[in-house]
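*Target chain*
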Amino acid sequence: MLKKAPMKFDKELFKGSVLNNIKTLYRRTLEEATPQQVFQAVSYAIKDVIVDNWMATQKEYEKEDPKMVYYMSMEFLMGRALGNNLINLRAYQEVAEALDELGLDLNLIEDQEPDPALGNGGLGRLAACFLDSLATLGYASYGCGIRYRYGMFKQEIKNGYQVEVPDNWLADGYPFELRRPEYAKEVKFGGWVSTYVDEKGRTVFKQEGYQSVKAVPYDMPIVGYGNGIVNTLRIWDAEPVECFSLDSFDKGDYQKAVEQENLARNIVEVLYPNDNHYAGKELRLKQQYFFISASVQEAVEKYMRNHKDIHGFADKVAFQLNDTHPTVAVAELMRVLMDDYYLSWEDAWSITTRTCAYTNHTIMSEALEKWPIELFSRLLPRIYQIVEEINRRFVLQIQQMYPGNQEKIRKMGIVYDGQVKMAHLAIVGGHSVNGVARLHTEILEKQELKDFYEMMPAKFNNKTNGITQRRFLLHANPLLSEWVTAHVGDEWITDLPKLSGLRIYADDEKAQREFMNIKYQNKVRLAKYIREHNGIEVDPRSIFDVQVKRLHEYKRQLMNILHIMYLYNELKDHPDMEFYPRTFIFGAKAAAGYRNAKLTIKLINSVADVINNDPVVNGRIKVVFIENYRVSNAEWIFAAADVSEQISTASKEASGTGNMKFMLNGALTLGTMDGANVEIIEEVGKENAFIFGLSAEQVIQYENFGGYNPMDIFNNDQDIRRVLMQLINGTYSSDTELFRPLYNSLLNTQSTAKADTYFILADFKSYAEAQRRVEAAYRDEKNWAKSAILNVASSGKFSSDRTIQEYVDDIWHLDKVTLPSKPEMTK
C-alpha cells in the first residue's frame, strides 16, 4: 500500500518564519498581533515554501515543454487557500502542531481567511476542482479569470430579505497572490477599424479611436497533492493606461481627470453585474473580452518565447472555454494570429479550431448568451468583423449540406436576427463540445443543439463532472477521512475509486456505529455554527435535510418550502402524530435582479419565523436559512447532512456537483432523475436513495406538446390548495400580496404566460411521498448507516481527477510532468 509520507518539515524554522513575518509586516510581537495579522504571517510563511515549488515547476515546464491547457472561466470559486495548501503540501498536521506550540489554533487561523470572491455557483467551483486535479495529476495548466474586487456580493439577511453588500475580500490584502506587472496587456474597446496594404502587400487591419485599459495579472498558486507541482490561477485586474490626467485636473475637468481610472475600475468591480439594462449588458461583454483578450495575448506570447513558428501553436496549447462567457476567445485568437502574426484566414482558422474546445453547462436557453449586434459591433469592432466572416463561411457550409434549407440557417447561424449567438460561435470555432453529465449531453444532442449534432457529431462528447476529494473530504471532514483511511488506507486521496473497499463494512455493526457517531459529531459542529450565526437551536439528533445551491426556480427551493408548509399543516392538524424531528437547512444566493428567487428566500425565512416559534411544533420542525452560503461553510454543511436535496425539474440541471459532495460525505440523495443524479443512482443503487417525480422525457413531452394544467391539481388536491392559499391569506405575512408573485407563477390566474414552468405541483405529491420514505428509513438506524456507508463507497467515479483525465485523453492530449524532487519545508 502506498503510504503518503509527509513533506520534510523544520518546525523551528517555520515558527521563526511566522514570528519574523509578524515583526516585519506589522512591527508587532505575537502577543500584540491581531488574529488577521497572525493569519497573514502564517500564510506568508507557507507561501515561501510554495513559491520555491512554483519556480521549480515552471523551470521543469520550460525544460520539458509540455502541452498546456488554459482553462478560461468567468468564475473560480476557490474557497480558502491556507488549509487546502497545507493539505496538498502534506504538512497540515505538522503545521498545526508547530502553531500549537506558539499558543495558536490552526482552525481559528483558517477562519480569518476570507473566501476569495471570484465565483458564485457550481460553474466556478467546478473550475476550482479542475485546477486542483490538474496540478495533482501533473498536467501543465493555467486558470484564466478576473480579479473581482467585490465578487458577486456578500449576502446579508435582513428582516428575511436578501440584501446584497460588497464582498470586500481584499480589504486586508491577500497573501497568496502575486502581482505580475511585467505581463500586463493592453485591451481595446470601441473605435473603428481602418485597413491599408503594407509594404509587403499584406492587408492590415488597425483599430483606431478606441479606449483601452491595462490588464495586469495576479497569480495565485495551485498546489498539487504531494507531488511538488504548483500550477497557476491567473486573474486579471484592470488598471488605466494613463492613471491620472493632470492637465484635465488643472483645467477644472475633474471627471475627465479620472475617466480612465473609472473605466478600468468598473470592469473588475463585480461578478455578473445586473444586465437587466443596457449598461449592464455592455459591462458584462466588456468583462468577457477584457480577460479573454489578455489571456489569449499572453498565451500566444508565452508560446512564442519558446518557439519560433506560430503554426505549431495548437500542438502545444489548448483553450477550454468554460460555458459561453469565454467564447469570444475564438475570434480573439483569430485576430491575434491574423493581425499580429499575419497568418492567412485558412491557417489562423486551422490553428483556432484545433486549439479551442467548449464545455456547455446548461440547457437553459437564457444562459446561452446572445449579444445585440449593435452593442457587440460598437464595443468590439474588429472582433465583430471576424465573427461576421466566421458566420459567412459557416452559412456556406450549411447551404452546401442542406441546400435551400433557410430554417437550418435560422437555427444555426452565429449572427442572425440582430444577435451574435455565442454558443454557436463556440461550437463552430472549436474541435470539441462536451456536456457535463450523460443525461445532459443526450439532451443537448437530441434537443437543444440537435442541428449542430446532426451536422458535426464527432465534436460532441460527455465529461461527467467531478469534485476534489482533497477539499471536500480530507479537509472538510477530518473525522470521516481518518475513519476511511483506517479502513481502506490513504490511496483514496489521489485515487477515489479505492473507496469501494468500504463496501465490506456496510453491514458491519461496529463500522455502522462509528460512522453514525462521526455524522453526529459533524452535526453538533454545524448546530453550533447555526446557533452562533442564526440564533436558532437545532437538535443534532434530528434529520438534517439540506438544500444548498444557487437559487433558481428550476432548482425548486420553492417546492421544498411548500412541502415544509404542508408538514406544518399536518402537525397543526394532528399534534400527537408520530413524526421524526427534522431540521431543514437552506443556503443560497439569488441574483440581485431575480425577483422570484429573492422572494423565495423571503418566504423561507417567513416560514421559519412562524414554525420555529410555534409551541405546537415543539421543535419537531426547524427551518434554517444559512446566510452567505460559500465554500468555507459548505464544507461543514456537507459533512453534517443526512439528506441531500437534489430536486431540480428533470432535464434542467446539467449535472450538479453538490450532489457528489453530499454523497462523498455519506448523505442520501433525495432527488429527481436529473443531471448527475442519474449516474449517482447507477453507482449506489436506487435502494440507497429516494427518487421521485417526472422523468426528463415526461417533462420534455409536456413542454413540447402541452397537456399539463396546474390548475387541475389545485382544484382537485385539498392539501396543495391549502398550502398555496397560505401564500396569499396572511399565514406567513401580514401583507397578503407579498408572496402573490410566487402564487401566480404556479397558477398564473392573471396572465397568459405558462403556469408552473418547473412542474412543482406536478411533482409535489411524489416528493411528499419520498419524504415519508426518508422518515421511515431514518428510523431504521442500522439500515440507514449501511446506505450512508454505501454512498461513500460508491462515490469513486465522481472525482474531478477522473473527469480531468477524460479531458486529457479525449480533448486536450496533454503530457504528464513529474518533478525530480518533492516539496520540502526546510530552508
